[in-house]
Amino acid sequence: MAHKRDREATRARLLDCARVRFARDGYDGASVRDVAGDVGVDPALVFRYFGSKSKLFTEAMATSSAPVVLPDGPVDELPAKLLRDLVFEDWAEYAGEHPLIAMLRSAGHEDMRDRVREQVCNGYLGVLKELADGNDDAELRTELFAAWLLGIGILRTAVGTPTLAKATEQDLLPHLATVGEALFGRPIPIPAED
Amino acid sequence: MAHKRDREATRARLLDCARVRFARDGYDGASVRDVAGDVGVDPALVFRYFGSKSKLFTEAMATSSAPVVLPDGPVDELPAKLLRDLVFEDWAEYAGEHPLIAMLRSAGHEDMRDRVREQVCNGYLGVLKELADGNDDAELRTELFAAWLLGIGILRTAVGTPTLAKATEQDLLPHLATVGEALFGRPIPIPAED
DNA sequence: TCCCTAAGTCATCGATCGATGACTTACCTG
DNA sequence: CAGGTAAGTCATCGATCGATGACTTAGGGA
């Protein structure tokens, strides 16, 4: 007996595995058979529960349990926290990449594009917005900073640029402070090493 | 008569179409039948000429006619030129995205990853390197700036963040100068509007 | 214990993909 | 104009994918 016959539990496990598969392999790279195999269930069950691969994908993204744990605390500590989350956290189950970066692989699909945008806007940008208070072009500055963090993550994990790939968090923090101060006109403290 | 029987010419046309297809649809999304169809030739011919889809891909990327026209001229004008190339150029045939950003869709494949890295390192980073002269962490600063440009391009075209998607080149140039100066410790001129 | 409902499975379809090998046709040479 | 060679085509294979519908089996209530 692999598992009890529980519709909701099986559905939830399918969604969990689908999330990882889609993020790691992209929409096209992840097959329904793969997801079903992870759960240890017949592929046909996926279609019984979700109707189609596309709907499985949409629901998996929409019910993302905890794609991002948005940090709180003093605003000027946010850049360092986001840097850690986006760049230096160990996302082993997502093939070493932040789920957001991994999801960009599927950006050809409209659903994924919308989902990523929503996550970036309502998540990261909403959190970063306070930093730009008092500046003109506040939204633009916020998005520019987010673009930088995203670009760093991509160069590190998806491209594998030599210096950045080897850089540690401590290497990046001073530059994070420099750019953050230039962009937001306020000092960005460098947290102590732990 | 569609075209003359010219092995080299047909090969070259296949490579051209393959480049666009791979960049726009990704490695998995682009089929050999698509590429052959673009050229108006039988798919089997592709295998006769290149052996496999993977080899077609590798050769298409390696012989990239002009994936990037690296700008020259005074070093402090490079940021603005790269911003235009990466973010504001009209890459209509690549579905509106810079080829480099489009190629990231295929970064799951090792070949593509290597190719993108090579292009970034020997292309953009090589050009930008001079800007960091005189700083410690010169390579890191260079890669961080490249990460920023890349991130801007991705947020604009692949994610579609609201403010950045609507921003014009003139909107971004002041911030480019600000961040560039902070990162490289030298003034970055803002070119006049044309 | 019986049995009915729902959870899960099996067999299979049609489309598409990469790939192969035998075939046909166009062009150049003598 | 004849004929050989190379450019290009056709038929087809095996694998994989999403998807469907009929089937089997588990398990709780009477």
Automatic annotation (TrEMBL), chains A, B:
Signal peptide: none annotated. Pfam families: TetR_C_16, TetR_N. Keywords: DNA-binding, Transcription, Transcription regulation. It comes from the Bacteria. Residues 8-68 form the HTH tetR-type domain. Residues 31-50 bind DNA. PANTHER family: HTH-TYPE TRANSCRIPTIONAL REGULATOR BETI (PTHR30055:SF234), HTH-TYPE TRANSCRIPTIONAL REGULATOR RUTR (PTHR30055). This is TetR/AcrR family transcriptional regulator. It comes from Kribbella lupini.
